[in-house]
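<amino_acid_chain>
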Amino acid sequence: MFKIFARDLTRWYQKHHRDLPWRATRDPYHIWTSEIMLQQTTVNAVIPYYEHWLKTFPTVFDLARADIHDVLKAWQGLGYYARAKNFHKAAGLVVDDHGGKLPADPVLVRSLPGFGPYTTGSVLSIAYDARLTIIDANVRRVVMRLLALPGEADIQQDKKVSAFLEKVLPRKGVGDFNQALMELGALVCRSKEPLCLLCPVRSYCSAYAKDKQETIPKPKQKIIKDIDAVIAVIRHKGKFFIQKRPSKGLLADLWEFPGGKVEKGESAREALGREMQEELGVKIVSASHLFDVRHFYTTFRVKLSVWSVETAPLPKTDKTHRWASSRDLTRYPMPSGTVKVIEKLV
């Protein structure tokens, strides 16, 4: 039964899979690039980034030698910037310790920054046909329906999911099988309105047999938090004042306009004055509201209130604070919300 399941699923994949650029190669670096980008990001969003990345950093040697500033700029808009920083660090280690070739040994690969169980399994199974299982959101949902597992699709399910995958994993063609599981979840066994009549393995599916495919897994309640923030656009002699975020934490090492969160009980103007004093040690001489920008993240929405500000004295410059022309602004890696502000400004 297990061999037939793997055969049926793989045959379906070979006939119906999407024609994606990283599926036309077995180059470990190319596959590694795609898998890092696809974490927390949709396929359609990744394609242009993937193609641009490989033009900018054609080999792991090019990535390893690149300045982190250029790496973050190439990543701009993909979000979760720690992925890019880990990718850069891991590329350096692969070049220094392994001659520029990603090892086939999962133990060695797991020691590299950014390689957890999923990334290790996906990259090595696709590039080297290593016999490794993978569990992502799509695979977890598919297996939960096949086994009719109750509850939400979270890591608590992974012990049972992994046990099933170990049984059905083929001895050869593991890369295609793993991609087939993910493709099935993305195209057919969708989180909402699964297309069961198109499923090549519905005869093995307990949820389908019990008519529970719409309720397995149990839907999660997504809580979205609303945040108000202020941004100060300070201009002097045709240049804009920008600052670099800390090297740790949210949006680390990216550049942005000064500003911050509006605290409870504050007006936007009051928050602006407090942020200028706390961040830059300056006072506001004048401030006028320009426009608002809304930006969405995974678990929260931000309204950015953008102000034109004059300060006394002018803010000081150093390694993490500088003046940039409108043309130079495009050369700095910045959060997507800041990019939206710049587009409206210039």
In short: The chain has two domains: 2-209, 225-345. The chain has a mean pLDDT of 93.
